[in-house]
C-alpha cells in the first residue's frame, strides 16, 4: 500500500514513469490477490491497471486511481486474514524446542510466498526452497519439524523427496504434508504411498493449512516425547541422546563447531538403594536430572544414558571450560541434601569424564573417550572430574 501511495503521489506530480510503476503494482495485486482468494481486491486492482494503461496524462491517472485506492483499502481490510490472527484457529502449539520450523518446497515463487506468509503470520519459523536439488541441504541445516511438499517441481518430484525422508533414519518420522495442484485420487494414493501424512490440493484455504500443520505438529510432538523421553527423569533417553550426539558430530564436520561430551555416573548409587530403598533412589535420579537440566544452557543436550549414568553435550565450549562447568556442578550437587524416611538426610556425589569432539570422531569413538575418562575418575577415588 505504501508503495502505491508513493507512486500515486509521483503520478499526481505529473511524472510519466510513475504511471508505469503504478501500473506494475496494480498488476501484481490483481494477479496475486486473485490466487489467494481475495477476489474483490483483485477486481479493483485490475480496474486500476486498465486506467493506467489507457490514460493520456499522469494527472488524469492519479485522479482516477486515487478513488480506486480508497476502495482497495476497504477491500484489503475486509480480506480474510489468516484465521489464526483472528483467533479462530489455535495459535501454533507450544514447541519443545522453541518455535516450530516448517520447510516449504514449491517451485512456484508466488505459491511459496503465499504459504510462507500464512505460516509466518501464525508464528512459525518458515524456510522456503524452490528447487529439489536444495532439499537435502535445507533438511539438514534448517532441521524442520514439518515439511510442506509440492509434487511437480521443475528439477524433480516431491514424491521422491518424501521417500528419501522416510528412508533417512535421522528424519524418518518428520510429518510431510503434500501441497499440490494434482487433484486425482491416483496422485493422492501416490502421495500416501511415498510417506505423506496429509494431502492438500491448491489453492489451499489458509485455515485448512493452519489446522493441518498444527495437528500434525502436535501429534509428532506427542510421539516424539513418547519415543525420546526417559520416563523417570523426563530427559532424552539413550537413543535420543545418541541422535543429539550425531547432530553434534555432523555440525562439527560442517562448521567446525566445538563440542564436549560429559559422561556422569552417580557414585555408590547401589548403596543409596540398599540403604534408603528404590523409591528414594528414583527420587535422587529425578532430582539429579532436574539439577543437570537447570545447570546447563538450553542449547546443551542432557540425557539419561543408563540406570544412574547421564550425558551432557556442551556446545561451543573448550574442554577446559567443560571441565570447569562440570566441576561446579559436582560441588553444587554434592552439597545438596537428600531426604529419606524418618527424617534421615544424606548426600550424593558423581564422577564425570569430559571428552572433546575431535575431527574424524564418530559418536562411538567420542563416547568411548568420555567413558574412559569417567572410569579413570572412578578409579582415582570418585567425586571428581577427569578429562580424556
Ligand atoms: P559406582 O560408584 O562404581 O558407580 O557404584 P554404583 O553403586 O553407583 O554402581 P553400580 O553399577 O554397581 O550400581 C548401579 C545401581 O543403580 C544398581 C541399580 O540397581 C541402580 N539403578 C539403576 N537404575 C535405577 C533406577 O531406575 N532406579 C533406582 N532406584 N536404581 C537404579
Ligand atoms: Mg510445482
Ligand atoms: Mg554409579
- Give the cofactors and ligands: 3'-deoxy-guanosine-5'-triphosphate, magnesium ion
**What's the total number of strands?**
14
Strand and helix order: HHHHEHEHEEEHEHEHHEHHEEHEEEHE
| Assembly category | single chain
Distance between the first and last residues' Cα: 62 Å
Helix fraction bin: 40-55%
Query: Taking all residues together, what is the mean pLDDT?
Result: 89
What would you say this structure looks like, in words?
- The chain is of the alpha/beta class.
- 54% of the residues lie in helices and 15% in strands.
- It contains 14 helices and 14 strands.
- The strands form four sheets. The protein has a five-stranded parallel beta sheet with strand order 2-1-3-6-7, with helices on both faces.
- A hairpin with a 2-residue loop joins strand 4 and strand 5.
- Helix 1 packs antiparallel against helix 4, helix 2 (16-35) packs antiparallel against helix 3 (39-54) and helix 3 runs antiparallel to helix 4.
- Mean pLDDT is 89; it is low at 80-96.
- It binds 3'-deoxy-guanosine-5'-triphosphate and magnesium ion (2 copies).
Q: What attributes characterize this protein structure?
A:
binds magnesium ion, 54% helix, alpha/beta, elongated, 388 residues, binds 3'-deoxy-guanosine-5'-triphosphate, 14 strands, 5-stranded parallel beta sheet, 5-stranded mixed beta sheet
Architecture blueprint of SSEs:
Blueprint: H1 2-12, H2 16-35, H3 39-54, H4 58-78, E1 101-105, H5 109-121, E2 125-129, H6 135-142, E3 146-149, E4 152-153, E5 156-157, H7 158-167, E6 176-180, H8 185-193, E7 198-201, H9 206-228, H10 238-255, E8 259-266, H11 269-276, H12 278-295, E9 301-304, E10 309-315, H13 319-334, E11 338-339, E12 345-346, E13 350-356, H14 363-379, E14 385-387
Parallel strand pairs: 1-2, 1-3, 3-6, 6-7, 13-14
Antiparallel strand pairs: 4-5, 8-10, 8-13, 9-10, 11-12
The structure holds 3'-deoxy-guanosine-5'-triphosphate (GH3) and magnesium ion (2 copies).
Amino acid at each position: 500500500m505504501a508503495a502505491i501511495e508513493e507512486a500515486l503521489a509521483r503520478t499526481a506530480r505529473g511524472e510519466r514513469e510513475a504511471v508505469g510503476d503504478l501500473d506494475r503494482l496494480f498488476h501484481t495485486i490483481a494477479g496475486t490477490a486473485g490466487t489467494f482468494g481475495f477476489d474483490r481486491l483483485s477486481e479493483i486492482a485490475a480496474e486500476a491497471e486498465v486506467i493506467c494503461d489507457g490514460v493520456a496524462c499522469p494527472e488524469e491517472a492519479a485522479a482516477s486511481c486515487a478513488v480506486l485506492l480508497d476502495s482497495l483499502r476497504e477491500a484489503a481490510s475486509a480480506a480474510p486474514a489468516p484465521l489464526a490472527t483472528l483467533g479462530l484457529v489455535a495459535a501454533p502449539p507450544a514447541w519443545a524446542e522453541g518455535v516450530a520450523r516448517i520447510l516449504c518446497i514449491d517451485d512456484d515463487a508466488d505459491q511459496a510466498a503465499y504459504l510462507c506468509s500464512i505460516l509466518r503470520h501464525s508464528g512459525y519459523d518458515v524456510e522456503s526452497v524452490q528447487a529439489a536439488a536444495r532439499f537435502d541441504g535445507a533438511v539438514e541445516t534448517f532441521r524442520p519439524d514439518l515439511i510442506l511438499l509440492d509434487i511437480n517441481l521443475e528439477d524433480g518430484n516431491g514424491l521422491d523427496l518424501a521417500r528419501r525422508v522416510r528412508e533417512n533414519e535421522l528424519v524418518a518420522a518428520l510429518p510431510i504434508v503434500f501441497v499440490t495442484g494434482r487433484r486425482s485420487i491416483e496422485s493422492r494414493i501416490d502421495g500416501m504411498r511415498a510417506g505423506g501424512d496429509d494431502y492438500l490440493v491448491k489453492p489451499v484455504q489458509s485455515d485448512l493449512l493452519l489446522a493441518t500443520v498444527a495437528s500434525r505438529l502436535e501429534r509428532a510432538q506427542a510421539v516424539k516425547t513418547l519415543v525420546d523421553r526417559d520416563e523417570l527423569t523426563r530427559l532424552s533417553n539413550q537413543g535420543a541422546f545418541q541422535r543429539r550426539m550425531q547432530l553434534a558430530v555432523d555440525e562439527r564436520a560442517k562448521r567446525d563447531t566445538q563440542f564436549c561430551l560429559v559422561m556422569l555416573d552417580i557414585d555408590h548409587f547401589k548403596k543409596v538403594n540398599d540403604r534408603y530403598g528404590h523409591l528414594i533412589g528414583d527420587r535422587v535420579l529425578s532430582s539429579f536430572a532436574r539439577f543437570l537440566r537447570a545447570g546447563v544452557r538450553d542449547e546443551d543436550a542432557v540425557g539419561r544414558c543408563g540406570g544412574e549414568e547421564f550425558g551432557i553435550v556442551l556446545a561451543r565450549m573448550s574442554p577446559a571450560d567443560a571441565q570447569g562447568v562440570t566441576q561446579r556442578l559436582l560441588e553444587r550437587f554434592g552439597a545438596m541434601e537428600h531426604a529419606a524416611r524418618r527424617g534421615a538426610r544424606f548426600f550424593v556425589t558423581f564422577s564425570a569424564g569430559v571428552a572433546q569432539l575431535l575431527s574424524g570422531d564418530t559418536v562411538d569413538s567420542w563416547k568411548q573417550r568420555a567413558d574412559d575418562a569417567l572410569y579413570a575418575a572412578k578409579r582415582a577415588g570418585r567425586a571428581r572430574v577427569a578429562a580424556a
